[in-house]
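User: Let's play a game. I give you a shape written as tokens, and you guess the letters that built it. Ready? Here's round one.
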């Protein structure tokens, strides 16, 4: 199926043409039929000579209903521009064409209608000249009469040729279905319709709806009036949603593949075409089927920042248009450059930003995004419309498939130069920490994460390179869990003085002489260079095994006093030493307080 939208001034015969081609009534409302005028979008379809199907989105031509027209053409990449032979080029001919041009629509036909009423020549010449100057370029032209049917066979074959020129839809892309109608069907519940421009929808799919906490589920699908299990782009579809109240969604909402779109109310865009020098400060942004008021902040000569009245699921590269609703005037087309732009708080930030934007063209560019954002998760980039290479399933990123060098940890991607700088900074921070905390075995990972302003611990871990290493939640030089210099010297003195009487512990005041304050003792104990029996009671670490050997030589069981004498020590050491041996299971205390060595 391919989808084409009509465009053109009111009463030029758009609906008559669609009716004649399809045998279906595009004017759905009683009021439309009573007034003989299209107010809202109409939908109809027919089979072409090739056997293919064309679906029409028939738009209103009246100037009051241009917003409805834009909701219809927004998601449709091809147009049937209708001009009446007897009336020629008119204001909404021009406004509709300007809208198509702003949206970058590149495929279309010119149909000169009411050819039974006047020579189609002049209208054709004028319209072709106008169209040639837009994104549509030179278009094929067919003159028809909706009344007599003249020209309709030629138009059908021209539609076939147009269909053949359209680029193939990308059916693996995520779904962004802009809703153009929503209604309730008795017994089925809420139904929405839209033009599926890319991707695939299946009954049972879960989809995201902006503002809804829960995913919505596809209960049924219709295309061309028939129920189907699946619909593939390009298609006009009607989607029946399970358990979604009708008032939850309407025109301008979008049903999305979950996790694949960034909802943003701030975008930096390039104005396309001939941007007016004095753009009003408030305009309406039309994109997809949505129309949202925006505040415009000029940045560069053709770049502006838009603050949206409500967030939309926009991607880098999206085309949209700005319209001045008061003046009935398409103010210009826009191409989205950045859907997550930085705040402009500092002085000069706007100027700097304009320079950055001058370099962007709306084509997603991974290396450029990394250079600007420095560090970002793959999922966040994907949600902006920046592909990070192959993906598996619903946006899950296969690490190996991402551009070499960009992944630094988990699904984090970094700009290579920034990552090198972070590595250097980490080395400096660790060295400074070691100077300031000579007794600690390295810098805690969380302290490092904060100092480097990193959003995730795994990034710190990934930055640690030899000779640094991670140990017990700290980053230090390899061997940082060995003794700091002053402590090592103090332990050496203990060894020299007490090596031959290993169960004598230095008295509290002597510890100070040896250079062992509480912090030094703590460091020595953590490093296993001293054994702490109690406050200020420390032995060399080999004392435990030696003690067990000595005690095993005593007649069993033995008393505290016998142990004290055999170890040649005092109660100050013997009591906690035996208790420690008990706890470790090397000795056992009997009910009469005597002990045995457990063998
Ligand atoms: N004679 C003649 N009248 C036409 C033709 N096409 C449309 N009309 C009439 O022009 C009027 C407007 O047509 P309509 O299709 O509603 O125009 P729309 O506003 O562009 O959709 C109606 O009265 C039609 O009957 C045509 O090819 N020949
Ligand atoms: Mg009409």
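Assistant: Ready! My guess for every position:
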């Amino acid at each position: 199926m391919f989808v084409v939208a009509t465009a053109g001034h009111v009463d030029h015969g758009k609906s008559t043409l669609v009716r004649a081609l399809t045998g279906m009534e595009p004017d759905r409302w009683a009021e439309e039929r009573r007034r003989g005028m299209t107010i809202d979008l109409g939908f109809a379809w027919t089979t072409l000579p090739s056997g293919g199907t064309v679906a029409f989105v028939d738009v209103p031509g009246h100037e009051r209903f241009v917003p409805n027209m834009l909701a219809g053409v927004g998601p449709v990449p091809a147009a049937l521009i209708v001009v009446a032979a007897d009336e020629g080029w008119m204001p909404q001919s021009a406004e509709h064409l300007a809208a198509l041009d702003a949206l970058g629509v590149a495929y279309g036909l010119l149909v000169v209608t009411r050819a039974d009423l006047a020579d189609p020549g002049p209208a054709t010449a004028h319209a072709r000249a106008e169209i040639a100057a837009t994104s549509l370029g030179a278009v094929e032209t067919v003159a028809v009469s909706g009344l007599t049917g003249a020209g309709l066979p030629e138009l059908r074959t021209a539609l076939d040729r147009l269909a053949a020129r359209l680029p193939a839809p990308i059916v693996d892309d995520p779904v962004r279905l802009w809703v153009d109608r929503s209604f309730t069907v008795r017994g089925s519940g809420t139904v929405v319709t839209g033009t599926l421009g890319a991707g695939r929808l299946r009954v049972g799919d879960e989809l995201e709806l902006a503002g809804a906490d829960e995913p919505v589920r596809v209960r049924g699908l219709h295309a061309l009036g028939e129920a189907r299990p699946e619909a593939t782009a390009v298609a006009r579809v009607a989607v029946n949603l399970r358990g979604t109240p009708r008032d939850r969604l309407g025109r301008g909402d979008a049903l999305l593949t979950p996790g694949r779109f960034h909802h943003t109310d701030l975008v930096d865009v390039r104005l396309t075409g001939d941007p007016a020098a004095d753009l009003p400060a408030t305009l309406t942004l039309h994109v997809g089927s949505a129309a949202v008021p925006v505040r415009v902040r000029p940045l560069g000569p053709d770049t502006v920042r838009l603050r949206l009245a409500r967030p939309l699921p926009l991607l880098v590269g999206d085309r949209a248009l700005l319209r001045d609703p008061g003046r009935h005037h398409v103010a210009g087309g826009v191409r989205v450059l950045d859907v997550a732009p930085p705040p402009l708080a500092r002085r000069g930030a706007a100027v700097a930003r304009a320079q950055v934007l001058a370099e962007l063209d709306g084509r997603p560019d991974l290396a450029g995004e990394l250079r600007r954002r420095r560090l970002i998760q793959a999922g966040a980039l994907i949600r902006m419309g920046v592909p990070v290479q192959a993906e598996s399933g619903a946006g899950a990123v296969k690490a190996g498939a991402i551009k070499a060098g960009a992944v630094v940890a988990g699904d984090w991607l970094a700009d290579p130069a920034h990552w090198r700088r972070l590595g250097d900074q980490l080395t400096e921070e660790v060295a400074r920490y070691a100077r300031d905390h000579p007794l600690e075995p390295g810098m805690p990972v969380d302290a490092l994460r904060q100092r480097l302003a990193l959003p995730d611990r795994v990034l710190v871990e990934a930055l640690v390179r030899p000779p640094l290493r991670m140990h017990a939640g700290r980053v230090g030089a390899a061997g940082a869990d060995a003794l700091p210099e002053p402590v090592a010297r103090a332990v050496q003195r203990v060894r020299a003085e007490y090596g031959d009487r290993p169960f004598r512990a230095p008295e509290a005041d002597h510890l100070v002489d040896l250079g062992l304050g509480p912090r030094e003792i703590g460091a020595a104990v953590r490093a296993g260079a001293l054994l702490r029996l109690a406050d200020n009671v420390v032995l060399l670490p080999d004392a435990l095994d030696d003690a067990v050997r000595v005690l095993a030589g005593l007649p069993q069981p033995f008393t505290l006093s016998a142990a004290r004498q055999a170890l040649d020590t005092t109660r100050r050491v013997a009591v906690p030493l035996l208790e420690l041996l008990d706890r470790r299971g090397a000795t056992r205390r009997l009910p009469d307080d005597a002990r045995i060595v457990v063998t």
